[in-house]
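Quick log. Single chain, no ligands specified.
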Amino acid sequence: MAGSVTLYLTSASAGAGNFQIYHTSADPGNLIAQNVSSASLAAGYCTNEVYSTYVVKSDTVDCQNQVLVYPGGAPVPTPTPTLVGPTPTPSTLPTLTDGWRITAGAVTFGASSVIGYHRGTVYGCPTPAVAIGSENSPTTTTVNLPGTDCYWTSIFGANISKGYGVTGIGAASNITLTQFTYDNSSGQLVFSATNGTATSNIGNGSLSGTIVGNNGTSGTWSVNYTVGTTYVDNDGAGTSYTVESTGTMSISGLTLTNGVTYNINV
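-> predicted structure:
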């Protein structure tokens, strides 16, 4: 290569000397000069062999030292590019005509991690500990469960926030959904609902339909429900309410996922 490079020794230990100069690496085939004295290198050693990297090596009695020299500056490592996959684009949900549209939330409670929608008869009162999920248009009408907080039942041995549910549309307009959840520790899927005005349970029966998420997933769901738990109100009069029907669901084709909005069709 045309041009020249001058290498200078700026400091060295007392025993340093008899320098060898290589290009690129300290390989015998890359030797440029040998037995270069400290004085010569301090005055500046000029070479017409121009490379981006030089190795200046000193052989002493008790050690061997070498220094990398970069005339144009030390090379800057090229960062490894981070592989980024395509960002999923939420799909548009079909028009909902019969059922509920909710966005799943998530909470960890003890050994359980629960995902879905749960807003009625929630453990913990006056602050509900595991209330999750939200309502989405066109089903945004919510109805508070009757009575005065806190509910109590010996089954749970704890105060229960009465909470509320979301009323469906079309064929579900007389059903207010209070719970639609998946517990990934037990694998249990729970459905709970009250009537359209949240004044009484919906008795015993069954529901089924399709479920579609805005993450592109879809499946089917079904439940056989029965009259649920009786709660004692905190009104001081011992008023009791059996306001929900509840049952264990089955869902096939998808898994409820935190942050995903679902059409629950009936």
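The mean pLDDT is 84.
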